[in-house]
Amino acid sequence: MMPHISSVIERRLLINYRVEPEVAASLLPAPLRPQVVGDWAVAGICLVRLGQVRPVGLPGAIGVRSENAAHRIAVEWDGPNGVEKGVYIPQRDSGSSLNVLLGGRLFPGVHGLARFDVEESQQDLHVAFTSQDGATQVSVDVRTVDEFGGSELFPDLTAASEFFRQGSVGFSASRDGHRLDGLELITPEWQVRPAHTHTVHSTFFENQARFPTGSATLDCTLLMRNTPATWRVTTPLPLAAIA
Q1: Do 73 and 24 touch, CB atoms closer than 8 A?
Q2: Which of 85, 102, 180, 241 has the fewest CB atoms found within 10 Å of its own CB?
Q3: Across residues 17-43, what is the average pLDDT?
Q4: Are the C-beta atoms of 114 and 93 separated by less than 8 Å?
């Protein structure tokens, strides 16, 4: 069993889309199903820079730092104590060769290697990456704002924050394709702030074979910064096959 991992979330940018539920469902392996808010499923891109990553109990000074990305779909499934919530992650990318080597082996989540380009100030953020094979490209430009607005998924920042706080377990396919491995984010200091997205480009969401025209629409953007976090491996979900 992998030890719990300590880290600091230096920046976690959540670019969120509202998606037609039947389209989201077509991308999920059983036993997962889309978590629906109103008439929509929820999907997005998580662009996260982690610092001081090390096993719990070791000093932060020895930890490592990396830029990472995950394409996500909010999901639910039937657990032993009722309906559980989290996210399904069909694709993870990292600028760290160490994450690529250890992902899906020492800790859950197979990662592809990517090249990241980041420019960041207190108000403005540009985060972009291209996968090593060139198949996946993402570029976003956002600015922090004082007021949350314009979302058709959530009436206010509190509702949006609570939705994503509850989805703190991320599942992704194991290397052998026989199960979904889970990793839970635990933090005592959960806090998000709103941001406005000036531009967003994602080959994942712009792929019309995956998301037909009009089936996925940018909804809202949230930002976390400088948040201590622990990562815990959860019980895997067994699968007959990964769709």
Answers
A1: yes
A2: 241
A3: 97
A4: yes
Q: Rounded distance, CA 196 to CA 148, Å?
A: 9
Q: Which of 190, 164, 185, 171 is nearest to 232 (CA)?
A: 185
Quick one: pLDDT band at residue 161, thresholds 50, 70, 90?
very high
What is the distance of C-alpha 89 from the center of its chain?
Answer: 7
Give the whole-angstrom CA distance, residue 178 versus residue 170: 16
For residue 160, the 8-state DSSP code is: H
User: Tokens in use for 205?
Assistant: 């969401």
Q: Write down the domain spans for the chain.
A: 5-238
Q: How confident is the model at residue 4 (pLDDT cuts 50, 70, 90)?
A: confident
In contact, 9 and 50? CB cutoff 8 Å: yes
Asked if omega into 31 is within 30° of 0 (cis), the reply is yes
| Closest of 16, 87, 57 to residue 234, by C-alpha | 87
% of the chain with per-residue pLDDT over 90: 82
Q: Judge whether 140 and 199 are in contact, CB under 8 Å.
A: yes
Residue 172's CB is within 10 A of a number of other CB atoms, namely 23
CATH superfamily of 5-238: Acetoacetate decarboxylase-like (2.40.400.10)
Give me the helices (H) in the chain, please: 21-25, 97-102, 157-166
Return the closest-CA partner of residue 89 out of 101, 75, 106, 105: 75
Q: What is the C-alpha separation between 14 and 72, in angstroms, rounded?
A: 10
